[in-house]
Amino acid sequence: MSGIAWTVVYVEAIRIGLTQRTYALPVAALALNVAWESIYSVWGLRNEPGLQAWVTVVWALADLVIVWTFLRYGRAEFPSWVTRAVFGWGAAGLFATAFVVQWAFVTEFGFPQAARYTAFLQNLLMSGLFVAVFVARGGPRGQSLTIAVAKWIGTAAPTVVFGVHERSPFVLTLGVLCFVVDVAYIGLLARARVHPEAFDGTGGRAGVPRAG
User: Fold this and answer.
1) Distance between CA 190 and CA 186 in Å, rounded?
2) In sequence order, what are the residues at sequence separation of 6 or more whose Cβ sits closer than 8 angstroms to the Cβ of residue 200?
3) In the predicted model, what is the mean pLDDT of the chain?
4) Are 120 and 178 in contact (CB under 8 A)?
5) Are 27 and 35 in contact (CB under 8 A)?
6) Contact status, residue 146 vs residue 133, Cβ threshold 8 Å
7) What is the rounded CA–CA span in Å between residue 3 and residue 127?
8) Distance between CA 88 and CA 94 in Å, rounded?
9) Does residue 66 contact residue 25 with C-beta atoms inside 8 Å?
10) Is 174 in contact with 120 (CB distance < 8 Å)?
């Protein structure tokens, strides 16, 4: 269930990125995802070449397309002082940092445990950043309920497996927090769909007139 749900997230993120000429996943979470999926796809194919390893490979390839949408359209989402050079070096630094962080967890905990811990930590980060993207963009531009619901399911399913059935307090705590933030994000997108006039891209900032 989690594999299917996250595949839906990535496919929809690619679709939105290409059609709306933006990037649909928060870039910090995207960087961690690229690092996680590239590291654990290689490790999985070498050590546990089963279904999960191949699913992770598919996710890693999908991530590369989403990264391309960020590099192609992302600079338009930043202030004008973020030049092409600043944007490029900043992106390189961010993605390099994500790999360093993932390897630090591997060094400390070993591959199986590091994979689990980092997956839930970056899931919680992504949940919060989705809300932050909604606020920063003043509405649902570059986002969708499909991504929000699929992300929610994709995180809730392994929370039950690892947090409840395998009795991991760490995973259960992070999973519950993800659940709460994901539901809040779904609520924001649902409200924006019902009341689009309230989310015109200005974020309701003082002094900025609303259209209409």
Assistant:
1) 6
2) 138, 139, 210, 211
3) 91
4) yes
5) no
6) no
7) 18
8) 10
9) yes
10) yes
DSSP code of 10?
Answer: H
The pLDDT value recorded for residue 202 is: 53
22, HSE (Cβ side, Cα atoms, 13 Å): 16
Q: Locate tokens 């070096």: which residue? A: 89
* 7-30 tens-digit pLDDT: 999 999 999 999 999 999 999 999
Q: What are phi and psi of 79, to 5 degrees?
A: -60, 160
**Average pLDDT value for residue range 141-153:** 95
Residue where the block lists tokens 């992106």? 91
The answer to whether 31 and 64 are in contact (CB under 8 A) is no
Query: What is the tens place of the pLDDT at every residue in 30-61?
Result: 999 999 999 999 999 999 888 888 989 999 99
Q: Is the pLDDT of residue 211 over 50?
A: no
Over residues 66-86, the pLDDT tens digits come to 999 999 999 999 999 999 999
